[in-house]
Design brief:
By secondary structure, this protein is of the alpha/beta class. The chain has helices at residues 3-22, 40-48, 64-72, 89-93, 117-134, 147-161, 174-188, 224-235, 237-244, 253-270, 314-340; strands at 29-33, 55-60, 79-84, 98-101, 139-142, 169-171, 199-201, 208-210, 276-283, 291-299, 302-306. The strands form 3 sheets. It has a 6-stranded parallel β-sheet with strand order 3-2-1-4-5-6, sandwiched between helices. A 3-stranded antiparallel β-sheet has the order 9-10-11. Helix 2 packs across helix 10. The longest helix is centred in the last third of the chain and has 27 residues, at 314-340. The termini are far apart.
């Protein structure tokens, strides 16, 4: 890294820290379940760097002490503790404001998100049972795939425990937004940091619906074919990474970044920062489906308001109708699993 870039990064971190200490913000504990995995490790690093985090609790079934020791050496304020094995899960969770769940197995070549279901559904069920017991008021950020099913599983587990609050359960679909922004900026030749693209629906294949008609800054440079191509690339982004890694991984680094972005938005909302809006998969009445991803306003209790879809193009209207059947089936599969197992 060039000295000028190092100085700039150092100055930015100092400014963020001074603002943090001067603002008198509340202490916040974040727990990451699956912290030793491919997403969990870079996510742990990014959350350690977040000045809004005062306590970082890292949990996994194995390998966590090493990850926690490594991350804890970083000179940022968050205090790090590592927990390993089911007997330490309760201690890892107690007092958490936000629980992020990247636990589970990654997708391999030829494996659909549906193939992940049987393994990851059981993991999510066990973790959510513990969350209901040890930190029932935490905001839960679900990364474990298939999100279209694991969020409904979590909801059912919390309902059984009598702790369910639809305002506090989120499916993290931020990676779809991150990809849509990146791909749009490249095609429209606009600066990527200025771009915003809402992505609605779900978090798998055709259930991912980027609303490029609402992208900002708007452009006339994209044809209908460009929009179709960008939509398909956003929907197939996970497969693109799996294939590029030739069977040796999935989207871990970009997912960790997206998870950190969404967790940061949740922290800001909890701390009373106004007008925090992110796309996320939540209990919703935006469509006839019980869960749906759309823009959500975040606040001190989690979801403050689920926002509508806005004006859709004809192409997007068609995409919306096409995704409903698959998304409905995935939601129902999650609910069925939670109630039968």
């Amino acid at each position: 890294m060039r000295p000028s870039l190092m100085r700039s990064a150092s100055q930015l971190l100092r400014r963020r820290r001074s603002y943090s200490s001067a603002s008198g913000q509340p202490e916040r504990k974040v727990a990451i379940l699956g912290a030793a995995g491919g997403i969990g490790q870079p996510l742990s690093l990014l959350m350690k760097l977040n000045p809004l985090v005062s306590s970082l609790s890292l949990y996994d079934i194995a390998g966590t002490p090493g990850v926690a020791a490594d991350v804890s050496h970083i000179n940022s304020p968050a205090l790090v503790k590592g927990f390993m094995g089911e007997d330490q899960l309760g201690e890892a969770l107690e007092g958490s404001d936000i629980v992020i769940i990247p636990a589970g197995v990654p997708r391999k070549p030829g494996m659909t998100r549906d193939d992940l279901f049987n393994i990851n559904a059981g993991i999510v069920k066990n973790l959510c049972t513990a969350i209901a017991k040890y930190c029932p008021n935490a905001l839960v950020n679900m990364i474990s795939n298939p999100v279209n099913s694991t969020v409904p599983i979590a909801a059912e587990i919390f309902k059984k425990a009598g702790t369910y609050d639809e305002k506090r359960l989120f499916g993290v679909t931020t990676l779809d937004v991150v990809r849509a922004k990146t791909f749009y900026a490249g095609k429209a030749n606009v600066h990527v940091t200025d771009v915003n693209v809402p992505v609605v629906g779900g978090h798998a294949g055709i259930t991912i619906l980027p609303l490029f008609s609402q992208a900002t800054p708007s452009t006339n440079a994209l044809s209908d074919e460009d929009i179709k191509s960008l939509t398909k690339r956003t929907q197939d982004g996970g497969t693109e990474v799996v294939e590029a890694k030739a069977g040796k991984g999935s989207a871990t680094l970009s997912m960790a970044y997206a998870g950190a972005v969404f967790a940061n938005a949740c922290l800001k909302g909890l701390n009373g920062v106004p007008d925090i809006v992110e796309c996320t998969f939540v209990q919703s009445t935006v469509t006839e489906l019980p869960f749906f991803a759309s823009k959500v306003k975040l606040g001190k209790n989690g979801v403050e308001e689920v926002l509508g879809l806005g004006e859709l193009s004809d192409f997007e209207k068609e995409g919306l109708e096409n995704l409903k059947g698959e998304l409905k089936a995935s939601i129902e599969k999650g609910i069925k699993f939670a109630n039968e197992n």
